[in-house]
Amino acid sequence: MAIVINLDVIMAKRKIRSKDLANELGITEANLSILKTGKAKAIRFSTLESLCEILECQPGDILEYRNK
């Protein structure tokens, strides 16, 4: 099982840069990069909610389950 993070895809569709998104979220670009690359072990619901609000999307647009 694998949870895939599609944050980079959504960001590209919304034409938002990492620097701008990180500033709006109130996190560092390094932490945003960890999320984008799927290296994060967890994500806070408050962060996910903020991402969805800023990117105008649903959690399922960002997170995807793929059966290996």
Automatic annotation (TrEMBL):
Domain (HTH cro/C1-type): residue spans on this chain: 7-62
Highest taxon, organism lineage:
Bacteria
| One Pfam family from the record | HTH_26
Coiled-coil residues? none
Identify the InterPro entries for this entry.
Cro/C1-type_HTH (IPR001387), Lambda_DNA-bd_dom_sf (IPR010982)
PANTHER family linked: DNA-BINDING PROTEIN, DNA-BINDING PROTEIN-RELATED
State what protein this is by name. Helix-turn-helix transcriptional regulator
Q: Source species, please?
A: Mangrovivirga halotolerans
Lineage, top ranks:
Bacteria, Pseudomonadati, Bacteroidota, Cytophagia, Cytophagales
